[in-house]
């Protein structure tokens, strides 16, 4: 009889582990991993601080003024503008050159003059790494981004008892993860200094929260849910 009871308990445990609708660490880890692995963090490449005259200039090069500065605060501001671009140069994603562009001047912008600038353009490595979000319109241009790493859940810390919310059963999950498969440029000291987000994202362990929803096929991350 004792063996029969033990077998029954083991069978129930195995059933819970294999049930995709069970509220379990394994199912929640799978649900969160499936979503975050396909949505790595990204850095937006800063936009030009100087805009050449004309409509719809190309996405690259990006321009930063190289005109002489006349005060210490102005020089410090110029350095802040250049810092993220120079970090991308050091990482091998951008290259830089000196040139001049025509910019609109005058009280009503009805004149033009030559402005010395540093021109930052993508290297072949940068072109492979960059991705684009958004569409070009008469008023906006796509956001150029550099995505990095593969988010991977290490541990489910805790989760709430599943409860109904707006007709859907949900659970709120706390978990820890890290970024695997980081590209070399994401480890560069200059990049970590210039982009605080990158420094946060490349820690060995990161705490995060997510809400998971129960569907007919099992649990999924709330951001993967389509009504």
UniProtKB/TrEMBL annotation:
Residues 67-77 have a biased composition (Polar residues). Residues 41-82 are annotated as: Disordered. This is Lipoprotein. It comes from Sphingobium baderi LL03.
């Amino acid at each position: 009889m004792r063996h029969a009871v033990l077998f029954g308990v083991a069978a129930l445990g195995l059933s819970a582990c294999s049930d995709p609708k069970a509220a379990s660490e394994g199912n929640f880890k799978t649900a969160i991993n499936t979503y975050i692995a396909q949505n790595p963090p990204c850095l937006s490449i800063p936009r030009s601080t100087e805009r050449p005259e004309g409509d719809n200039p190309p996405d690259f090069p990006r321009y930063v003024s190289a005109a002489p500065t006349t005060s210490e605060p102005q020089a410090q501001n110029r350095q802040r503008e250049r810092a993220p671009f120079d970090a991308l140069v050091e990482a091998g994603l951008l290259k830089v050159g000196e040139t001049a562009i025509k910019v609109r001047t005058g009280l009503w912008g009805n004149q033009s003059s030559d402005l010395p600038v540093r021109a930052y353009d993508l290297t072949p490595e940068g072109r492979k790494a960059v991705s684009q979000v958004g569409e070009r319109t008469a008023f906006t241009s796509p956001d150029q981004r550099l995505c990095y790493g593969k988010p991977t859940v290490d541990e489910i810390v805790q989760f709430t008892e599943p409860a109904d919310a707006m007709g859907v059963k949900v659970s709120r999950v706390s978990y820890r993860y890290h970024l695997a498969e980081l590209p070399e440029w994401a480890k560069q000291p200059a990049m970590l200094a210039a982009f605080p987000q990158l420094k946060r994202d490349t820690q060995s362990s990161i705490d995060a929260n997510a809400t998971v929803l129960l569907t007919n096929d099992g649990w999924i991350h709330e951001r993967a849910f389509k009504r």
